[in-house]
Amino acid sequence: KRKKNLEKEEEGNGSSFTCEICIEPMAASKKFKNKSRCTHPFCQECIAKYIQVKVQDDNTAKIECTGLECKHDLDPFSCKPIIPSSVFSKWCDVLCEDYVLGFERSYCPNTNCMALVVNECERNGTLKKAQCPSCKQWFCFQCKLKWHAGYRCEESGNLRDPNDIMFGQLVETMNWTRCPGCGHCVERKNGCSVVMCRCKTQFCYKCGGKYPLGCLCFRSFACNCRIAFSILFMAAGFIFVLAFLIKKFERGLKAFDQIGTFGAIFIFGATFGHSSLFMQEICQI
């Protein structure tokens, strides 16, 4: 407490302070100011040396304040005037690299470009078609090759015939989806996004993945009409059973007759049976 009081007195005087790193008295003009994040009594020279070690030796992006139990980071723009321009430039590069590592990234397949492309839009790994911001060439973000319109990644290496390329472009224009089982193109006019090919393979028309485990958009209820149907069936079953019970009690009957009992059991069994199938389907998702 005495130490904190002394620091407050020194700061109040405005003439000098004691740096907690080098333990030397310093003029108030040499005190480092970390924007509005924290106000520890550190001199600019000590902070500058600390930043140089962190950046040049450790390649640290987010440099923490040296204050005891302080969880704030040093503000790069507050540090810019007290460190060499080369150190600040490298620090900016390290910060950019640290930012990029948090996103899915790829390099342009164009050998004359090879620019770094960052996916800042989709975080679930579903991005496929991407355009290089440098050379404007389209490529596949999944297989890192030139864009293969209408073909899957595993088929893109065999695209040599111009007719195959033209057919792939037609598939993309018509918005057809290839069956993951047999590879044939399927066109959906309307209805549920979960379709069945003539080879009996069920797949999602939106992402082209096998249903349900291979579907990339399975978390969206819009791609599965059967889930909505299951919910409606369960709701209708419960309403019917509830109305049946109310009607019996209104008549003053103490017990169900044989037909009514078996009917209620059948309805309950069908409803809960369908709900169990519904839960199994949800658990698979």
Automatic annotation (TrEMBL):
What does the record list as GO biological process? protein ubiquitination
Can you name this protein?
RBR-type E3 ubiquitin transferase
As cofactor, the record names: Zn(2+)
Pathway assignment reads:
Protein modification; protein ubiquitination
UniProt xrefs under Gene3D superfamilies: 1.20.120.1750, Zinc/RING finger domain, C3HC4 (zinc finger) (3.30.40.10)
Q: What does this protein do?
A: Might act as an E3 ubiquitin-protein ligase, or as part of E3 complex, which accepts ubiquitin from specific E2 ubiquitin-conjugating enzymes and then transfers it to substrates.
Keywords, comma-separated and alphabetical = Membrane, Metal-binding, Repeat, Transferase, Transmembrane, Transmembrane helix, Ubl conjugation pathway, Zinc, Zinc-finger
All copies of the RING-type domain together span: 15-227, 19-65
Q: Does the keyword Transmembrane helix apply?
A: yes
- The transmembrane residues are 227-246, 258-279
Q: What is its EC number?
A: 2.3.2.31
Catalytic activity, reaction form: [E2 ubiquitin-conjugating enzyme]-S-ubiquitinyl-L-cysteine + [acceptor protein]-L-lysine = [E2 ubiquitin-conjugating enzyme]-L-cysteine + [acceptor protein]-N(6)-ubiquitinyl-L-lysine
Which GO molecular-function terms appear in the entry? Answer: ubiquitin protein ligase activity; zinc ion binding
User: Which family does the record assign?
Assistant: Belongs to the RBR family. Ariadne subfamily.
One of this protein's Pfam families, by short name?
IBR
